[in-house]
Every structure is written in structure tokens, then in C-alpha cells.
Amino acid sequence: MKKNSLMFYLGLAMTVIGVFLFFTIVRVGDFSFTHMGRYNTGPMILIFWCVILALFVIYRSVIFELLLALSTIALIIVIVLNVHIYVVSTSMIKFIAILALIFGGAGLMIRENV
């Protein structure tokens, strides 16, 4: 095993550990299909998607393929925009250590690939 590949795998391990530790302090909440945003658009888009999917299965038209793709994108956008992601309070030392693992590992991987 070459020394360069050892440093690459060390950087990969550091990045994976840092990302895992970062995910332990991230919380996700306030998402439901019953109330998405202010206007309750989640069920409407989900029903619209199901209807277009049924029409696509029955008729197999290019228009329904396009509508199915657009409604799928709209459903994903609604879900992503209404999920609240936040970082819980943690000590500054732990946060700096997490960032050092992530960026230090990424730096080692980049340096060994250049």
C-alpha cells in the first residue's frame, strides 16, 4: 500500500467520522402531510400526483409523462421546504472538533488526489 493511499483513506475516515458526529447534533422536525406550510398544499399535490400517475398508467402519453415529472418535482419541493432542520446547542470545542474532522479529512483527500 502506498503512503498516498493511506493518507487518502485516513482523510476519508476523518470525514466520515466528522459527518456522523455532525448528524448527531442536527435535529429535524415540524413536518407532516396534514399541514404543509401556510396553505395546506401537501395533500393537494399528493392527490394531484396520484391522479396523474393513474392517467399515465392508463393512457401512456408524453403529456402525462411531463405532468408526472413536474408534479413529482413539486411534491419533493413542498416536502423539502417544509422540513425544519436545526442544530442543537453544543459546546464550541465539540463543534470545532467536528469541523476540523470534516474539513481536515476533506483536505487530506483532495491533497492526495491532486
Beta-strand segment tally: 2
- Classify the beta-strand content into a percent band: 5-15%
Number of domains: 2
Quote the distance from N terminus to C terminus. 18 Å
Shape: elongated
- Rg on CA atoms, Å: 22 Å
Give the topology string: H per helix, E per strand.
HEHHEH
- Mean pLDDT across all residues, rounded? 80
User: Structural class of the helices, strands and pairings?
Assistant: mainly alpha
Helix content: over 70%
- Subunit organisation of the chains: single chain
Strand order of the largest sheet: 1-2
Total of DSSP H or I helical runs spanning 4+ residues? 4
Largest sheet: 2 strands, antiparallel
Uncertain segments are none
Give the topology, please.
Elements lengths: L2 H22 L1 E4 L12 H18 L2 H20 L2 E4 L4 H22 L1
Antiparallel strand pairs: 1-2
Helix pairs in contact: 1-4, 2-3
Q: Can you put this structure into words, describing what you see?
A:
- This protein has 114 residues and is mostly helical.
- Helix content is 72%, strand content 7%.
- It is built from four helices and two strands.
- Strands 1-2 form a two-stranded antiparallel ribbon.
- Helix 1 packs antiparallel against helix 4 (92-113) and helix 2 (42-59) packs antiparallel against helix 3 (62-81).
- The protein starts with a helix and ends with a helix.
- The model has no long low-confidence stretch (mean pLDDT 80).
